[in-house]
Amino acid sequence: MVEEVSTSRSDALDDTGYPDAVVDLLGVLAYGELQAFERLVSDAVLAPDLDSRAAIDGMAVGEFGHFILLRDRLTSLGVDPSYAMEPFTEALDAFHASTAPADWLEGLVKAYVGDGIGADFYREVAAYVDPRTRELVEHVCADLGHSSFVIETVRAAIEADPAVAGRLALWARRLVGEALAQAQRVAAEHEALVELLVEGGEGGASLAEIGRMLARITDNHAARMNALGLSP
Amino acid sequence: MVEEVSTSRSDALDDTGYPDAVVDLLGVLAYGELQAFERLVSDAVLAPDLDSRAAIDGMAVGEFGHFILLRDRLTSLGVDPSYAMEPFTEALDAFHASTAPADWLEGLVKAYVGDGIGADFYREVAAYVDPRTRELVEHVCADLGHSSFVIETVRAAIEADPAVAGRLALWARRLVGEALAQAQRVAAEHEALVELLVEGGEGGASLAEIGRMLARITDNHAARMNALGLSP
Fold first, then answer.
1. What's the predicted TM-score (pTM) here?
2. What pLDDT tens digit does each residue of chain B (232 aa) get?
3. Cβ of A51 under 8 Å from any chain B Cβ?
4. B45/A contact by beta carbon, under 8 A
5. Residue B131 contacts by C-beta under 8 Å, 6 or more apart in sequence?
6. pLDDT value of residue A20
7. A180 CB near a chain B CB, below 8 Å?
8. Scanning every residue of chain B, which has its alpha carbon at the shortest distance from the alpha carbon of A50?
9. CA geometry: angle at A169 spanning A163 and A170, to 5°?
10. Whether A33 contacts A66, CB under 8 Å
11. Which end of chain A has fewer CB within 10 Å, C or N?
């Protein structure tokens, strides 16, 4: 707890003059990384052996490092990180509560596919904020760093038992559905984030640009599913 | 999984000539840190606010750093870390299963008092191993690094509600009891660790030295309880 920062959300914004949307973006991303860290660690017990378990824990620790970067950025903007994160805890907690993996493979697919979509979305939004924030968001989202372990493990599981592919593809679809449901909820409750996309930056994104953005996110998702050996 | 290392425990020991007890010490400590990391993260959700939750997560990440150091040391000795840890998973899992904290304060006391006793014990055993192993064990055990946060939080809770002190003191006694029960189990199953204490180093510890060791561990435990404002 840093004593000097503002103690209420709106004060913080008034004091700093930082756009609501930047604080929202950093806040949702920071809480997302903290949650991803904790969920990944709690899913690590599903691992079939100690090596895999330690690998998942190591991936999780990477997410915690991202959280620290985002939290420190909020603090340096004079914004209390907890106040920036608080508005997003419910939606992100709801996403994780509704997508608790039933086994090790579901946990891996969630880490790879779920985090991938999240990162794509945050990167798209970051195109409309100041360069320093954008750089930080891109750094955090680029460094997922756990793709090869996940890809190898999931592909090996499918090779050993091809029926696994259908089950995991369904699971990934459910993940996307739940993520979209929560994203819509966040959008409904946080106008600033939506306005950033529609009106932000150099006049904001046109409807055509938003269409292209959704197409890019969908394409990237399909590429990740293919990498795992799953039909999108 | 490192391919070059031995694939069975006894092979590893035969190949390297490293005493069983050193591998046991590094193995139990490595798994202890991995477990402490995961348990601390799962207890973090008990935190009353996001700042405290992130503080606990940060403490946990420190434990994961220790795990990595210990795992790498085992690998550099030519020992498969999983084979070194495996014999201790049951006893350590049983300890954590029987001491799941019911609330935030119990979690903090467990992290401070439980880890403290463990660290004291490992340090005492390390007096009888080679200097490089001893140095690593002392580094890992010295760097608990979370004492001031825990002490301040527990003392503030007792100040706000003095009845808390009695409940937490009982909880700490249960932790010690469960830890001793599992330590006895480990000792019964791992002669090499016991022999290290009794016969290791410069002729090993005499009975008088073992008595002094237990007195030191007890004294340190009492000092930690006092620091928290609890009667030992």
1. 0.83
2. 444 444 444 433 444 445 788 899 999 999 999 999 999 999 999 999 999 999 999 989 989 999 999 999 999 999 999 999 999 999 999 999 999 999 999 999 998 998 888 888 888 888 888 899 999 998 888 866 567 889 999 999 999 999 999 999 999 999 999 988 888 888 888 887 777 777 654 556 677 777 888 889 889 999 999 999 998 8
3. yes
4. yes
5. none
6. 80
7. no
8. B82
9. 100
10. yes
11. N
pLDDT higher than 60, residue A200: no
For residues A30 and A36, give the distance between their C-alpha atoms in angstroms, rounded to a whole number: 10
- The tokens describing B210, both together, are 């073992």
Distances in Å between the alpha carbon of A35 and those of A116, B137, B202? 15, 31, 50
Contact B38 A44 (CB under 8 A): yes
- CA dist., res. B80 & res. A215, Å (int): 46
Cα A130 from Cα A112, distance rounded (Å): 28
Interface test mutation site (partner B, options A50, A63, A66, A69, max chain B beta carbons within 10 A): A50
Characterize B36-52 residue by residue with b for buried, 16 or more Cβ atoms within 10 angstroms of its Cβ, and e for exposed: bbbbbbbbbebbeebeb
Q: Across the interface, do B57 and A45 touch by the CB < 8 Å criterion?
A: no
Q: What DSSP line would sit under chain A, residue for residue?
A: --TTS-SSHHHHHHHH---HHHHHHHHHHHHHHHHHHHHHHHHHTT-SSHHHHHHHHHHHHHHHHHHHHHHHHHHHTT--HHHHHHHHHHHHHHHHHHT--SSHHHHHHIIIIIHHHHHHHHHHHHTTS-HHHHHHHHHHHHTT--HHHHHHHHHHHHHH-THHHHHHHHHHHHHHHHHHHHHHHHHHH-HHHHHHHHH-TTT---HHHHHHHHHHHHHHHHHHHHHHT---
Q: Which residues of A touch B41 (CB under 8 A)?
A: 37-38, 41-42, 60
B75 touches chain A (CB under 8 A): no
Task: Give B139's contacts (C-beta < 8 A, 6+ positions apart).
Answer: B69
Residues 6+ positions from A165 with CB-CB distance below 8 Å: A158, A229, A230, A231
Q: Which runs of E-coded beta strand occur in B57-109?
A: none
Q: State the Cα–Cα distance between residues B190 and B200, nearest whole angstrom.
A: 14
Taking the C-alpha atoms of residue B169 and residue B175, their distance in angstroms, rounded to an integer, is 10
Interchain pair A42, B37: CB under 8 A: no
What distance in Å separates the CA atoms of residue B25 and residue B57, rounded to the nearest whole number? 26
Lowest mean pLDDT among A2-6, A47-51, B147-151: A2-6
The CA-atom distances, in angstroms, between B141 and each of A77, A223, B86, B129 are 36, 45, 21, 15
CA distances from B58 to A93, B62, B150, B189 (A): 20, 7, 13, 34
